[in-house]
Write a structure and sequence with these properties.
single chain; 0% strand; globular; 52 residues
Amino acid sequence: MPKAHQRHAGMTPQTLVAQAARIGYHTALLVERLMRDRPHPEQGFRSALGGG
């Protein structure tokens, strides 16, 4: 697996939303939308993590 993908290997959309919810309700909504608006939720991981 490429290094860029390795850091996301153990992540799931649910874990990202849970982490975002610790920041706040609206942050969790944003993360959900970032993943929902893509063909595959994993494509939204970098955006949700602030990496572009």
